[in-house]
Predict the 3D structure of the following.
Amino acid sequence: MNLFLHLQKDFGVACLFIAHDLALVRQAASRVYVMYLGKIVEHGPSQELYDHPGHPYSQMLLASTPEVHPIAEKQRRVPVMIGEVPSPTNPPSGCRFRTRCPLVVEECKQQMPPALKLSPGHSSACVFAKDLHRGKRSALISPTANAA
Ligand code: SF4
């Protein structure tokens, strides 16, 4: 990772870095694109997306990173990922994440939600994008459940 960061800095090159570990991505990327089943579901400036994710899948990826400190780990909100990954050759109708999303509602089955602008350069394709972005809704279960 250090070599990668040096190459970026020394040569001023743009790099495309693909990973599942968003903690690692945070170190390297100024912009983040979150994909699920071949579709970009959220994108934005790195800091903004990490601080205010606007898509349940982004929330889950971010919450999957274990905390080093034991107390922080006990307080960490837990991702609830249901079901199996659908086949990319036969994706679900509507929102592709709907078969695994804890927030799914009837509307999600009808059509792929359009990308909603949440802040400059930050968009999310979820019917609850604005609520998630404002912290008024979450796809994660409470910290007390994690402590059990
Ligand atoms: S559009 Fe619906 S199914 Fe898709 S991520 Fe948002 S709440 Fe979940």
User: Anything to note?
Assistant: Residues 55-56, 95, 97-98, 101, 103-104, 108, 113, 126-128 surround iron/sulfur cluster (CB under 6 Å). The radius of gyration is 16 Å.
